[in-house]
């Protein structure tokens, strides 16, 4: 847990980088700080590991007032990932990753074993990459080492300052997805700085949208997109915020259509209009069959079924669904259970996708009546 209580930072030249900041990041929560350049995001973050000292106010990490903790001790409990990763050029990837456990006195063999595990976790095979030097890696691979290194001492808190800022958009999206998967396993308390609203929306359990030195809105991504608290936030999240909602709205079971279903060992059915989904004996997704094939063929479904190319687990975002439809030029995609391996739940069609998006927008409009969030109520703080 990280808590800011009325924190102000005034630099020596009088610049107030942040003023009277109060907010909390719950244990295991990922909060993104987003805002334009110079609004105070990095200052906020660096106060948590005491690279910058606040002028006023107090900051707590796991209930402890950090002004009373030795900064070096404090930093060992807090993982820190920055854009220019800051790997040691003369150390191998494995040695870089094992740096902090080493400093904490963990024996070399144990530190290296742990480092190898973490490299694996961030998608770098330790056998291939462990003995390389940072200059022998791509930008995206270096960022992964940065993340692995920050996790190596198993710190409860992670600070990430534009960690994926220096890589191209495709690699960035891959790193974001991998990081989300990792976070669902390790559940760190994370403060994540970015100037990219898409990244903030995609990664954050909650988002703090910064204006100049102050938080304009602190809320779940869907709420920030659905009901921006001020004209400034509305402007910052952009006119296409309806589209951005695609990435924060999950596919739910209720969104799915139920097409005709046949099983692998069924005789070929004659009554399928256009197509049917094919399941195996355990109701897991196998593929599909067209009505024409079913009518003209002989034997059982098994001999004529085609494998399914595009499917998603329930809970995946509508954006993923949309992207999958486009990628496979598919008019529908099959949705399967996330827990039980592959159990078929139904299909998502463009019409149902549109309905789901509408539902998500309407739900917010009802939950947060716009009249309650007036400019006056915010600017009078
Ligand atoms: N050492 C310093 N002395 C004086 N002013 C500073 C100092 N460091 C930062 N500032 C100012 O404090 C404000 C906030 O800076 P900060 O680095 O926190 O912004 P940021 O939101 O992280 O920006 P960016 O996205 O560009 O990194 C800016 O106006 C900056 O110029």
UniProtKB/TrEMBL annotation:
Q: Does the keyword Cytoplasm apply?
A: no
**Domain ABC transporter residues, every copy:** 2-237
Give the family this protein belongs to, as stated in its UniProt record.
Belongs to the ABC transporter superfamily.
Q: Which organism is it from?
A: Streptomyces hundungensis
In short, the EC number is 7.6.2.9
Fetch the PANTHER family from UniProt. OSMOPROTECTANT IMPORT ATP-BINDING PROTEIN OSMV (PTHR43117)
Annotated GO molecular function terms are:
ABC-type quaternary ammonium compound transporting activity; ATP binding; ATP hydrolysis activity
Alphabetically ordered keywords of this record: ATP-binding, CBS domain, Hydrolase, Nucleotide-binding, Transport
Taxonomically, which superkingdom? Bacteria
Query: What is an example of a Pfam family matching this protein?
Result: ABC_tran
InterPro entries in alphabetical order = AAA+_ATPase, ABC_transporter-like_ATP-bd, ABC_transporter-like_CS, CBS_dom, CBS_dom_sf, P-loop_NTPase
- Give the first-level EC class, as a single word: translocase
Q: Which residues form the CBS domain?
A: 305-363
Entry keyword annotation includes Nucleotide-binding:
yes
**Name of the protein described by the UniProt record:** ABC-type quaternary amine transporter
């Amino acid at each position: 847990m990280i808590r800011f209580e009325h924190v102000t930072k005034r630099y020596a030249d009088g610049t107030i980088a942040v003023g009277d900041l109060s907010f909390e990041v719950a244990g295991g929560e990922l909060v993104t700080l987003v805002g334009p350049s110079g609004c105070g995001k990095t200052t906020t973050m660096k106060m948590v590991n005491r690279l910058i000292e606040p002028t006023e106010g107090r900051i707590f990490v796991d209930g402890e007032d950090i002004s009373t903790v030795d900064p070096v001790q404090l930093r060992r409990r807090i993982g820190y990932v920055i854009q220019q990763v800051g790997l040691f050029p003369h150390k191998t990837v494995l040695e870089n990753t094992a740096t902090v456990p080493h400093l904490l006195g963990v024996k070399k063999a144990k530190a290296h074993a742990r480092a190898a595990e973490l490299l694996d976790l961030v998608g770098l095979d330790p056998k291939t990459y462990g003995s390389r030097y940072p200059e022998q890696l791509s930008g995206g691979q270096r960022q992964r080492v940065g993340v692995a290194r920050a996790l190596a001492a198993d710190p409860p808190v992670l600070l990430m300052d534009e960690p994926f800022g220096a890589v191209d958009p495709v690699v960035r999206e891959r790193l974001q997805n991998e990081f989300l998967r990792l976070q669902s396993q390790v559940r760190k308390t994370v403060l994540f700085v970015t100037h990219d609203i898409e990244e903030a929306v995609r990664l954050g359990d909650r988002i703090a949208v910064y204006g100049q030195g102050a938080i304009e809105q602190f809320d779940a991504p869907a709420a920030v997109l659905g009901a921006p608290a001020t004209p400034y936030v509305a402007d910052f999240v952009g006119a296409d915020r309806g589209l951005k909602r695609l990435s924060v709205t999950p596919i739910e079971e209720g969104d799915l259509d139920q097409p005709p279903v046949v099983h692998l060992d069924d005789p070929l059915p004659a009554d399928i209009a256009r197509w049917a989904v094919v399941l195996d004996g355990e109701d897991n997704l196998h593929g599909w069959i067209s009505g024409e094939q079913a009518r003209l063929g002989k034997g059982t479904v098994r001999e004529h079924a085609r494998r399914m190319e595009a499917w998603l687990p329930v809970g995946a975002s509508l954006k993923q669904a949309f992207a999958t439809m486009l990628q496979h030029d598919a008019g529908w995609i099959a949705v399967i259970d996330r827990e039980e391996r592959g159990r078929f739940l139904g299909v998502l069609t463009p019409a149902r996708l549109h309905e789901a998006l509408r539902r998500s927008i309407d739900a917010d409009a009802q939950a947060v009546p716009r009249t309650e969030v007036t400019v006056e109520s915010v600017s009078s703080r």
